[in-house]
Amino acid sequence: MNRKGFLYVLLTSASMCLTGFVNGQTNENIISDYNHIPLAGNAFITKGSGAQISRINGLTDWTNQEAVTSVYFRVQEPGKIGLRLQASVGDCTPSIIKMTAMGQHKTVDLGEAKEKLNQELQIEVKEPGYVRVDLQGLHKTGNTFGDISHLLVLQEKGKKELLYANDAEYYYWARRGPSCNINYSIPSDGDVSYYYNEITVPLGQDKVGSYFMANGFGEGYFGIQVNSESERRILFSVWSPFHTDDPKSIPDEQKIKLLKKGKEVRTGEFGNEGSGGQSYRKYQWKAGQTYKFLLKGVPDGKGNTDYTAWFFEPEQKEWSLIASFKRPKTNTYLKRFHSFLENFIPEQGYQGRQVQFKNQWVYDGQWKTVQSASFSVDNTYRAHQRVDAIGGLTTEGYFLQNGGFFNESVVPGTKFEFNTNSKAPNIDFDRLP
């Protein structure tokens, strides 16, 4: 087998099936040269059920031949590659699977020993971007098709490194996908007490697990999300000044205090990604429709700041209160106006989503329009664990997109300018609920 000029991935079997030689070298010596792409951080069940992705062991409990597992990695330079798997099948019993990538496929018996170790699927990548490798079971004699821990990748010498989740601390976040922000330039040196924004989720982009944040600020966030196929929410939260992921550990004097809430709004505490006060209302917002958000933030004169969020209901044609919270040990007006996009369900990380923002205004005694913004990303992107996130301009404002392993890229920190022709919001603050 001539290895020159090719990128190879071993399709091998663990335990007793890892014996044998290829080109006069032991499997152990060959495998040591490869990029080990862990399925624990780079694979998803993209069709069917009867298989699991373990954050430690990769593909496990694979019993159903209808299940399709997809593994993703990003090639930075064109070239030919070969694909194999590192697998474990009990007692090397026959287990026939199909491996597919870029229109090519190969049928492989995961349970066979050294005689079949040199089988591979060879493909050619013609331009930089993500490669998807699909695995589907065809026939098994045991209880499962086997466990697969890694896709092993060897590149030609001199090629740029592959991009994939290679740090176990990032597996959870990489499967969620990189989060991204549009950071608005506030056109005021004064005390900004209100943020106004409008968002539209395009048709088909409202995937389960998506959070579309309209009015982000230095101490919290306000937007809409898709919790399940049957439930959607308006979500408004404020972080406690006490830094912890456990809300029960927050001292009473640093807890977020509820001042008031709107009808059908539920309130409580949240944790795991910082902690604080949370409010949400179940509301079946629709993709393709534009929604308006208004946020107020003002000091109370006693060393605290009060934050209040309103959502404009198009059906009722009026503003409705979500909630008002007091944040202790805080003395500030609104700062760090931004919008945000994330997926909060790891199993949904292979799905793509997009959101559009328009008509941003701030109020410092008079309404002033936002005319510029910049794009930023989270630690998952910055660590090059996964880079499918972009932001930019639309004909009406700005957009964010993440997930789905697309190949387009926008350099983090890129700045955009957009001069809206829209009129300032016509809001009677005294009549807000």
UniProtKB/TrEMBL annotation:
> What are the record keywords, sorted?
Signal
Q: Cross-referenced InterPro entries, in alphabetical order?
A: DUF3472 (IPR021862), DUF5077 (IPR031712)
Q: Where is the signal peptide?
A: 1-24
Residues in domain DUF5077? 37-154
Q: What name does this protein carry?
A: DUF3472 domain-containing protein
Organism (species): Sphingobacterium tabacisoli
